[in-house]
Amino acid sequence: MQAREDGAGQAARSKRADARRNEETLLDAAAAVFVASGVEAPVRDIAAEAGVGVGTIYRHFPTRADLIVAVYRHQVEACAEAGPALLASSATPYAALGQWVDQFVDFLVTKHGLAAVLQPENTGFDTLHAYFLDRLVPVCTQLLDAAAASGEIRPGLDAYELMRGVGNLCIGADSDPRYNARHLVELLIAGLRRPD
Predict the structure, then answer these.
(1) 71 contacts 34 by C-beta, under 8 angstroms
(2) How many CB atoms lie within 10 A of CB 37?
(3) Over the stretch 128-163, which tens digit does the pLDDT of each residue have?
(4) Rounded CA gap, 72 and 67, in Å?
(5) Which end of the chain is more exposed for a tag (fewer CB within 10 A), N or C?
(6) Model's pTM, two decimal places?
């Protein structure tokens, strides 16, 4: 009897793991389409990117708002997990910081469409913003502290201020094709370096 229960439990865990991977595939595809075409991109484009039918997306995310919020949370988690991984794998803490900020910029490009779905006076928006800050400010702090401890950047930089500055540089990038937010963010990060 115990062996049957163990097998059933393992099968259920395996099914949950498969469902999580499938949902992550959908969210990654949606994020890629949102970055390329905005959050109003047709669901069929997301389905094609994910290699699934449109109905599969609607089964997981009944409304566009559900999908956008899920992508937002998924990308926050990916950004949060990337910080420590980059610190462990990059040549220097400053390089890790630069790579993380680059990923943060990709996230911000997707995030801008959230305002079209959730209004700032909506409590859901406030909850997501608090989630964003709670997950990402500590990661950015860790990266800044590591780069400062290695002597690559000035000490005492505030993660929230840096993230806010990067966010402000990204505003308007979608409305002016000559505006290169990524280049300006690179200049900002270069400006963090400790003078020789």
Answers:
(1) yes
(2) 13
(3) 888 989 999 999 999 999 999 999 999 999 999 999
(4) 9
(5) C
(6) 0.77
